[in-house]
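User: Quick one: structure for sequence A, then sequence B.

Assistant: Sequence A:
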Amino acid sequence: MLALSFVARILSDLDESGKRGKGFDRDETLDGMPLLGIALLIIGWGACREDPLRALGLSVSLLVRCPWRHMFAVWAAAFVMNRAMQEYLFRPDLRCLVDNGTINPGGTYLALAGSGPVRAAVVGAAMTFSQTFIEEFFFRGLALLGVAGALKHFGVPAQAAVTAGVAASSLAFGLIHFIPMRRATRGKRTLLPWYALAAPSGLGATFCVLNAMAGSLWPGWLVHWWLNYAGFIWSRVGGRWERVAGAPGS
């Protein structure tokens, strides 16, 4: 499934390159997610000294152990909260940032901006699948285990080390959302960057709890995938990013 997702990203990238007719020149932006995913898997092999997917519980047999009701509840609550925040509380701030082209909808939306609804739905599912894998594999996998392992090496009790790993990886996940939003809103009086820090950090910690319930990386990855894919479909149907997607340099 992961390999097919990477292939879908590559084919979509090549298709868009062909439509633009520019070739692979310096103005071209290539999708680096497949290369990044492969690099992280190689690092995972070295860190885990075995198949990193199996080491993190990503086997098909462990899917049955996922806490599906809890996962759906987290997804529904997070999706509704995010939509409410964006559509009501932060709507003026976001509209301003969208109108001036300061923020864009991300690689999946831009890559499929000119696609029909069926292709967008299918390829969008594949692209968000691999995107969320890379984030979960790094933050809830390698980063969490790395911090916990380092602390245990220095004599920190196992439970405290894991808790610190959860906190550190969740904060780091929040920061990669906070920093770009902080830069985008520099000079503006808005709480949007702090929401961009708090929401992903809280979700990251929640994903860790779900993963612990199943002994696997599956729960957090699947909920993360559902959230990103649902957000992509929501934005696609609403068409709120169409002008940004067609803007030069977006």
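Sequence B:
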Amino acid sequence: MIRPTHVLTAMLAVAFTLPALDASAGGFELGENTTKSVARGGTGVALRKDAAAVYFNPALLTEARGLQILLNGNLINQDVTFQRDPLVTTRGSVTLNEEFEPSTNSGGPFPAPFMAVSWDAGVDNLGLGLGVFGPSAYTGLCYGEKTDGGCEPDQSSGSRYMLQGSNLLQIYFLASGAWRFDLGERHHLSVGVSAGAAYQQNALTVYSDSKTPPSPPYQERDEDSALLEISELQDIKPTAILGLSYMYEGLHLGVSYRPPISWEGKGKAEIKPPPQFAELASLTDDGVRVALDQAGSLRVGVGWAGGTHPGFADRPRVEVEGNVVWEDWSRTQDFVVDFDGDLDLGFGTPLTLNTVYQTKNWRDTYSLRAGVSYAALPWLTGHVGGFMETATQQVADTHADFVAWERYSGSLGATFHIGDLVDLDLGGSLIASPDRSVKSGNVYQAIPLSQCQGPDYEQDACARPGQPPGNPQNQGEWSSSAWIASAGLTFYLLD
């Protein structure tokens, strides 16, 4: 007989092998976790009755009876293309016109695993759960050439001063508990909490302008470009998800909230200077810190379940759910890069590497999600859904690192009931974003040797007070789309 302790041991063993996948599973969300929710438009806060409740709404664990094991994975791909406008600079009577090669994400698809277990311990009103997963997200970007060793940067790329490559791994470890209060014969209220830790590991590659002294006009010459590689950024933070569920016959109401996380990854920096300084330049200290904020998430949902499943007397035939999700991304105004060392060119006093503020100006996002399930046959349940989401990035702040514009999605899926003990879920989602044309960009290249520094850029060294040094980097034509293919298995044991 399978025991809950055996299940926990197996889950933890698998969890610690996740980094070996070399996949950027994690990061800021794109789509949703688990196949059923992918297929039903990203819903899940009101009607989940399985182990995935540890993530969507821990209060729903009281509806996940017996011992359930959920093994799930998303395969996510995001296409991004950026054609930067030509850069026109004037020096005296000479006008220079520099054109750029298109920047295309070659990172390819990657998996985002999700594993959870729920158990009622034989108590009618109790629900317990454990979860180990990476959020459904895409941050394994490469605007150069994808190689077995990572991403080979392309200095001719229009995104070179925004991003060349990134690799973000994020894992949640959660333990959950829920209790149901019976309010009468036909309705009850459940409360639940998931608590644990979130781990993040990050790496990125970007070009910076090393012209000395840095002053306009900024010509972005190859001989002034230094490659900045930041790796081994790691941080671990406490996290939690709070949940509430109310049910009256077939009507289900749910609310859950995940607080924001302020990350401060500490890692190593390496600067590969222009050729004329290649043999001389080095960092006096390779330590680096990157600070960024991850939004909190509030989900509110309503669902209805009715009829009797043709294959299971204790399951509904029809489920309809709608969710509204709010995320407070407006807390993210800058990504902050702080160097421990300075740049030693082998002669004189080392040059100070100033703190870099990468302006984001992100906004809160809202999404409307809807999904339907219908049990057509004793062994088959179909799913359909879709969502629409507002933009995190304003047009002027469109950036190559996180492509977070308006999103519109349609999805389909099916659950195959293999006997009484196993469900096989298959589903997919297409996510579209409108093209963007950026004519007044607000993204500038990093110039860590400049004395004009953020976040206000009001120093005497600023040629344009209130504005970063350098040229806008994101002006041009942008397009993006994504797809998610998802599969999962649910095992129903010890009922």
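The chain has one domain: 4-493. Residues 4-493 form a domain with the Porin fold (CATH 2.40.160.60).

User: Thanks, that's what I needed.
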